[in-house]
């Protein structure tokens, strides 16, 4: 599956698409519009996804930006890319994808994917977003299922201990399996 008009995905396009989709916004709950985010996951209903769709939002943005990524790549052992843990498994198992812990010598950039710990439900890798801006001590990320609002938004977060890792897809990335 290639993205828009068969174009290969780029991180620049991902940042732009994620910004646009965050400001749409998507909303869960009564009268929500998250069906397009949930549709690629056949074992998941909109009701089941409600308040749990941040990772599906990121996959949707990646696909819209032209990245060829399936919902359940072989590298995902415990869950699909509807879960933050699935994104971590995927990134760590595919050597073409760069995975950085915040303590490593790495500077995030727009179009990187950010995994968080203890932000949404006080667990490890409990939230995810797409970096759209980088500041000296913070990032601005496009995120789905933001806090109590259950909507997508741009969120400024400090570059602190809540960031679990950054995932960098190479421009032109497509899944092999």
Task: Give the structure's gist in a few sentences.
This protein is α+β, with helices and mostly antiparallel strands and 177 residues long. 24% of the residues lie in helices and 21% in strands.
In words, what does this structure look like?
The protein is α+β, with helices and mostly antiparallel strands and 177 residues long. Helix content is 24%, strand content 21%. It has five helices and six strands, in the order αααααββββββ. Strands 1-6-2-3-4-5 form a six-stranded antiparallel beta sheet. Helix 1 (11-23) crosses helix 4. The longest helix is centred in the N-terminal third of the chain and has 13 residues, at 11-23.
Average pLDDT metric: 92
Major sheet characteristics: 6 strands, antiparallel
Helix content: 10-25%
Structure summary, number of beta strands: 6
> Strand order across the biggest sheet?
1-6-2-3-4-5
Number of helices: 5
What integer value in Å does the Rg equal? 15 Å
Question: What spatial form do the alpha-carbon principal axes imply?
Answer: globular
The proportion of residues in beta strands is 15-25%
Low-pLDDT runs:
1-5
Write the H/E string, N to C: HHHHHEEEEEE
The computed structural class is: alpha+beta
The end-to-end distance, rounded to whole angstroms, is 12 Å
In terms of topology, how is this protein built?
Elements: H1 11-23, H2 35-38, H3 46-49, H4 54-64, H5 84-93, E1 98-100, E2 113-116, E3 127-134, E4 138-146, E5 151-158, E6 163-168
Antiparallel strand pairs: 1-6, 2-3, 2-6, 3-4, 4-5
List keywords for this structure.
6 strands; disordered N terminus; 177 residues; alpha+beta
């Amino acid at each position: 599956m290639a993205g828009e008009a068969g174009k290969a995905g780029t991180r620049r396009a991902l940042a732009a698409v994620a910004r646009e989709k965050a400001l749409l916004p998507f909303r869960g709950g009564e009268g929500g519009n998250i069906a397009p985010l949930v549709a690629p996951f056949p074992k998941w209903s909109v009701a089941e996804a409600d308040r749990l769709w941040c990772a599906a939002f990121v996959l949707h943005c990646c696909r819209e930006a032209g990245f060829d990524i399936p919902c359940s790549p072989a590298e995902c052992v415990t869950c699909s890319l509807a879960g933050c843990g699935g994104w971590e498994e995927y990134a760590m198992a595919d050597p073409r994808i760069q995975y950085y812990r915040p303590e490593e010598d790495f500077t995030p950039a727009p179009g990187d994917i950010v995994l968080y710990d203890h932000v949404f439900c006080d667990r490890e890798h409990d939230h995810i977003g797409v970096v759209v801006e980088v500041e000296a001590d913070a990032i601005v990320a496009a995120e789905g299922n933001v806090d109590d609002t259950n909507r997508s938004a741009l969120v400024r977060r400090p570059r602190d201990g809540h960031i679990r890792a950054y995932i960098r897809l190479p421009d032109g990335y497509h899944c092999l399996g």
